[in-house]
Design a protein that fits this description.
- The chain is of the alpha/beta class and about 675 residues long.
- The protein has 5 domains: about 5-120, no CATH class; about 130-290, Rossmann fold; about 305-315 and about 395-575, Rossmann fold; about 315-390, no CATH class; about 590-670, no CATH class.
- It is about 50% helix and about 10% strand.
- A 7-stranded mixed beta sheet has the order 3-4-2-5-6-1-7, with helices on both faces. A 7-stranded parallel beta sheet has the order 10-11-9-12-13-8-14, sandwiched between helices.
- Helix 2 (about 30-50) crosses helix 5 (about 85-100), helix 8 packs across helix 9 (about 155-170) and helix 9 crosses helix 10.
- The longest helix has 25 residues, at about 560-585.
- The protein is globular.
């Protein structure tokens, strides 16, 4: 019966209450039970009367925490009965007595309305922190309230930032907080999290730029880096939180980190690159805590999941376009090398007078923005050709059609999140899926309220697919999606981690699945394309080893034999190119993933495991496949479920998959 039915509900509640009291009274202490419960019931109704429904729950949670109880107990009771009702009071009374916490809880409830309002208004984390969150918070405070916390997506880094608010406020009784992020959607999520997790009184549906707080004692504001960097000194605060802090390393937004403050915390899934690290260290302090995916799995924070790889060739037209653009790129690079040696020497500050490969060219262009007036027209033309070729891969029709067909099947019964490279692809997939399954999409060309509505609809539905380009990579909470479908190539491991993070939520009975789609061209520019294609496979194997999962080709039995042969030849040729390049330069370099050195890989293998690995390889006969390599590495670590050896597949590739060559490399680069 609906609680809004007035007298009818009251009559029913009183009937059930009296029947329950009759049963419980016989099991308890007779008159003492009736008398004590009657007082508790009356005082609970009086105490909660001035507050709204959500405020009642938050107040009781805060009192429960102060009494040494898990706030989840309040949620359990509120799910059964209307908060503040007689049956609610009865169930709460019984549970408090069973936990021997009744008198402590009741004493805190028996306070004036003003004191109860103070308890409700003050920030208090309403959930129990995980061990790694407590450790991160402790190390940040030990570092003087400065520094960066790196935690894998879905492991609760937002809570660490909010928990610091509770501690700082408790010590000072007055606090101003500024949360910075590069996206309005992320700030909206932060605002909602601050209200729900700190139990603050505010409308969670207000816009991100509506501050929240408690009187003149606490004020939490939210703003974008794009706004603050213009005049950071105008946003002075006590405590600065910078989410997805790697965005702050960019020269255009770096100034936003100059906000005057006493305490500052940077948060990120991971930070890649030495320059980024040094820049962020300078502005926010060193990294004080790291909690990666491997640790999250070990502690049960992130569930196990399946990783499927889908490989699709370009269609005929795409293959022709890709081939023609590839020829133009090769010819134009040769022309630049033969006719513009002086220009290359000038712009590279004398480092070289010709481009060894495309990586040299792309890297120099990226670092020469300040010399744009000196860049020859042919260089800009070459950059345009490279972009056009990359777009063919990202928007490959067979890859997208395969992903659409998959979504039509799996989104009938489960919730999926699909990641695209750009808005055009997002809209194309949205139109194709609409009418087959519940379909939602978000992107920067939609108005903010439209994106919010789409996200809210998806969160409330029981099945369907949410499609989004890059804006969904970071910070948006999709707590019950089970399937991720990635049709956009991730340029960095960070993007992959963030995309998986949208589906990896540790909930009972949930078994996430991640599908990664790869488009395969058949005309390569060596060595650049070989490097980038193989690197796609390398990070898949990195995740496989780190997270103790298996990756497999989706529906491998249905792939045509001629396609299987073509893929094998493509991968073999790419590996041969890599081996020749490494033999010449003793490293692998690409603009897509930086520089890989075998010594760094060898150094990341523990010494004891290295000895076992050499023994295993000495007894191995024949070439080593990817799957066999994973098993050998695990065996060298005594069959640990998760092993972290970054870029380990490059070691196998450069050794030509020969066990004796791997041993030689291990011994050559061993400290």
């Amino acid at each position: 019966m609906d609680t809004r039915e007035g007298n009818n509900y009251s009559l029913l509640e009183n009937f059930v209450l009296n029947a329950s009291l009759e049963i419980l009274g016989k099991r308890s202490h007779g008159e003492k039970f009736y008398h004590e419960f009657s007082i508790f019931r009356r005082e609970t109704i009086y105490a909660l009367y001035p507050f709204l429904e959500e405020q009642k729950i938050n107040l009781l949670k805060k009192i429960a925490i102060e009494s040494g109880l898990d706030s989840e107990k309040i949620d359990e009771v509120s799910r059964m009965f209307c908060t503040g009702s007689s049956l609610f009071s009865l169930e709460l009374y019984v549970q408090l007595n069973e936990l021997k916490k009744f008198y402590e809880f009741f004493d805190k409830l028996l306070q004036s309305d003003e004191k109860l309002a103070n308890i409700l208004g003050e920030p208090k984390i309403l959930i129990d922190l995980w061990g790694h969150q407590k450790e991160a918070l402790q190390l940040w405070f030990q570092n003087g309230g400065k520094g960066i916390v790196e935690m894998a997506t879905a492991t609760g880094k937002t809570i660490v930032g909010l928990a610091a608010i509770q501690v700082l406020y408790k010590n000072r009784k007055k606090l101003n907080v500024l949360v910075l992020a590069h996206s309005k959607a992320i700030l909206r999520q932060w605002r909602k999290e601050a209200i729900s997790k700190l139990g603050l009184i505010a409308d969670p549906n207000d816009n991100y730029n509506t501050s929240i707080g408690y009187g003149n004692k606490l004020r939490i504001e939210f703003n974008t880096m794009q706004t603050v960097y213009k005049n950071p000194w105008g946003y002075e605060t006590d405590y600065l939180i910078v989410d997805e802090v790697h965005h702050g390393a960019g020269k255009e937004f770096r100034n936003a980190l100059n906000v005057p403050c006493k305490w500052k915390m940077g948060l990120s899934a991971t930070i890649e690159g030495g320059e980024r690290e040094s820049v962020l260290d300078q502005y926010l302090g060193k990294t004080v805590y790291e909690f990666n995916l491997e640790k999250a799995r070990e502690k049960g924070i992130i569930p196990e999941f399946k990783l499927y790889i889908h490989k699709d060739f370009l269609d005929v037209k795409e293959s022709v376009d890709f081939y023609l653009i590839t020829e133009k790129i090769v010819n134009l690079l040769n022309f630049i090398n033969s006719t513009q040696k002086e220009e290359i020497k000038l712009i590279s500050n004398g480092k070289f007078s010709s481009f060894e490969n495309l990586s040299d060219f792309v890297h120099l262009m990226a670092n020469s923005r300040s010399k744009s007036d000196q860049i020859p027209a042919e260089w800009n033309s070459l950059s345009t050709l490279l972009f056009r070729r990359r777009i063919i891969i990202h928007r490959s029709s067979p890859k997208i059609e395969s992903a659409i067909n998959l979504a039509k099947v799996v989104a009938r019964n489960k919730k999926c999140v699909m990641f695209t490279m750009d808005i055009e692809t997002c809209e194309k997939i949205y139109d194709s899926l609409s009418g087959y399954v519940n379909t939602y999409h978000v992107h920067s060309n939609l108005k903010e309220h439209q994106n919010n509505e789409e996200l809210d609809k998806f969160k409330k539905c029981s099945n369907g697919v949410l499609i989004a380009p890059k804006m969904l990579d970071e910070g948006i909470d999709i707590p019950d999606a089970e399937i991720g479908i990635n049709v956009s190539s991730s340029k960095t491991k960070l993007q992959l981690v963030q995309r998986m993070g949208r589906i990896l939520r540790n909930k009972p009975g949930k078994k996430p699945v991640f599908h990664h789609f790869v488009a395969l061209p058949q005309s390569f520019i060596d060595p650049e394309d070989s490097f980038n294609y193989l690197n796609d496979l390398v990070w898949i194997q990195d995740i496989t080893l780190k997270m103790g999962i298996t990756s497999e080709i989706y529906d491998a039995d249905t792939i045509a034999p001629e396609d299987v042969k073509t893929i094998q030849e493509l991968e073999k040729r790419s590996e041969e190119v890599v081996c020749r390049y490494h033999a010449k330069y003793d490293k692998i370099t690409s603009n897509e993933f930086g520089t890989i050195r075998i010594k760094s890989i060898v150094d990341s293998i523990e010494q004891e495991a290295k000895v076992k690995l050499i023994t295993l390889l000495d007894n191995w006969d024949g070439y080593i496949s990817d799957e066999q390599w994973i098993q050998i590495l695990k065996a060298s670590y005594d069959d640990e479920s998760m092993v972290s050896i970054p870029n380990h597949l490059w070691l196998l590739i450069i050794a030509e998959r020969k066990p004796e060559n791997i041993v030689n490399l291990l011994q050559k680069y061993d400290n």
